[in-house]
Amino acid sequence: MSPRDEETVAEGDPVLVRLRGLTKHFDVSPPLLTRLIEGRSRQVLKAVDGLDLDIARGRTTALVGESGCGKSTVARLLVTLYRPTAGDLVFEGTDIGRLTDRRALASARRRMQMIFQDPFASLNPRWRVGRIIAEPLRAHGLLDDPAAIRRRVAELLEHVGLRAADAERFPHEFSGGQRQRISIARGLASSPHFLVCDEPTSALDVSVQAQILNLLRDLQRDLGLTYLIITHDLAVVRFIADTIGVMYLGRLCEVAPADTLFARPRHPYTRLLMETVPDLRHPDRDRRPMAGEVPSPLDPPSGCAFHTRCPLANDRCRRERPALRQDGPGQVACHAAEEGRLSPEGGDAVKGMRP
Amino acid sequence: MTESLLSVRDLIVEFPTRRGALRVVDGVSLDIVPGEVLGVVGESGAGKSQTGAAIIGLLEPPGRIVDGTVHLEGERLDTLSGDQWRRVRGRRIGAVFQDPLTSLNPLYTVGRQLTETIRTHLDMTEKQARARALELLGEVGIPAAADRLDAWPHQFSGGMRQRVVIALALCANPRLIIADEPTTALDVSIQAQITALLKRLCREHGTAVMLITHDMGVIAETADRVAVMYAGRLVETGPVDDLVNRPRHPYTEGLMGCIPTMHARPVRLDQIEGAMPAPRAVPPGCAFHPRCPLAVERCTSERPPLVARPPLATACWVRSPDGDAA
């Protein structure tokens, strides 16, 4: 066990990114004419709906959830690919969600980078690897001497476990795992403090996934990076994250230090999610598949969005939206947790679920 | 071992190209007994889907079986003509593929696709077939099945579509279902529902399943036996518990070690260096030797046979030297 295993993200840890009430709505209304003729109304997709989260410097925070829960929208908001509809997005002291000054925005963007899921789509097939990796250096005007750029590219390639000579080759000459290493090298080129990784290993085979996860860990140790990892894979999260946020339909239902979350999940959704994941070493674990499906984010249920699938839902859950409140070392948004209706261990919380 | 339901011997599948033939399945032999779930695992490009496609006669041209045999209940399948296949596919072997949207015809209602399939394989009137379709939809857990019979595929969610596809595969009560990554396109909470459903239905109907997936977690929970493929070859087979917890082949061992789990937090994951070779670049000898920590001289030149040393059968010169078995 490393010392890291014992540590948890205490309240005193320096915060690199602070999200308060972060909201992103997409207007998905039919065209104006259709609305007029067919009498249809405007329609808003609440992809992210009031998110509060602190991302501690030098740590790994993970957001987990099923498709459509809004986790990738959060990633895009963080790297300013989207503008928030409302709320604060404070990165190193600046509210970057509201920045309009191009230079200030560029400076923030230099200090944060994103790694995408698909290493086949995120690298330009017509560019040599050296040019791909050097792009952030040129775009941000960090280096302009060709020899210095070459040296920096070589250094970055070696840092991610490739050879300096690979700069001359094209992306198609590399395997999926090597391409993801190239993406990471490009992400590191502008010496960012913060890396947002959206499903960084989902497109990779398991043996390669392990290489990339180990690499991300080594880089964090060597460079003091802060990560936000977006993933649906709880086992990956268990390996890499210090703090975990569980999302459901655009909202956080639970945020907790990793060890706490896995040892003592509080929110019924977190508990069900953990029960449904097949596990290699514990195949005989009594698993109950979660009933029902994720409701449409276009028409989320009233009150607590999870109440339609929750074994503990009552009238209050159907009516009133629960706020994220402190609960032990973590935070949970659940009326049942607040009222003490949750069982402490979680095992019997799922009684009554049908397979 | 009881009589095999499916028996595959020395199967070789090649895709001819201008620069020579690509061998994607290279000498695979496997058996499935009635009612058994055989998990076939491997990384992308290992040849597991091509093996499945070859068995059910759905190899994408120009891919073809160049050698080996496939027998189902004693009948040879690999030499069947297109017409002859129609008696077998759907009736005696069902199929479930990864993407439930592309497995269903978007222009037909779910009910029509079911009744049509039922009537193709079984001697039934339209009315009987509709009743059977309704029964099947109920069986695969579609709520309010009677109302959903006339719905279109796009009106179903991904999980519900996959249930419909399973109902289609079960239509004619086949003896074997080939399920190729049946849960990969689905969310985790839905994955568990579908795996449980497949497992329950096959137990009830006595249907055997060849479950092709890259997800060892799904295999560990669903399969009775596992076959591990690497670069088109079978490297190890055996009962699921032995294979997961006491693997002999260094590749299987590495594969198990590099899978993160929710129950432990190691400082590092074990990792296998490098990547699986492409079909054109499979090295001589054991295909795994360039990545293998145990490789010896012999591994670089001579291909190891699959040697049965119960409970596992392993193809490795170091861990399972040939001895007298072969």
TrEMBL record, chain A:
Basic and acidic residues bias: start-end ranges: 281-290
Gene Ontology terms: cellular component: plasma membrane
Keywords of the record: ATP-binding, Nucleotide-binding, Transport
Gene3D superfamilies, A to Z: P-loop containing nucleotide triphosphate hydrolases
Membrane topology (UniProt): Peripheral membrane protein
Similarity-based family: Belongs to the ABC transporter superfamily.
The name this protein goes by in its record: Peptide/nickel transport system ATP-binding protein
Source species of the chain: Roseospira visakhapatnamensis
Organism lineage string: Bacteria, Pseudomonadati, Pseudomonadota, Alphaproteobacteria, Rhodospirillales
TrEMBL record, chain B:
GO molecular function annotations of the record: ATP binding; ATP hydrolysis activity
A Pfam family assignment: ABC_tran
Transmembrane segments: none
Gene3D superfamilies registered for this protein in UniProt: P-loop containing nucleotide triphosphate hydrolases
Keyword Transport: yes
Biological processes, Gene Ontology terms: peptide transport; transmembrane transport
Keywords: ATP-binding, Cell membrane, Membrane, Nucleotide-binding, Transport
Protein family according to the UniProt entry: Belongs to the ABC transporter superfamily.
NCBIfam families: oligo_HPY
Entry protein name: Peptide/nickel transport system ATP-binding protein
Lineage, uppermost ranks: Bacteria, Pseudomonadati, Pseudomonadota, Alphaproteobacteria, Rhodospirillales
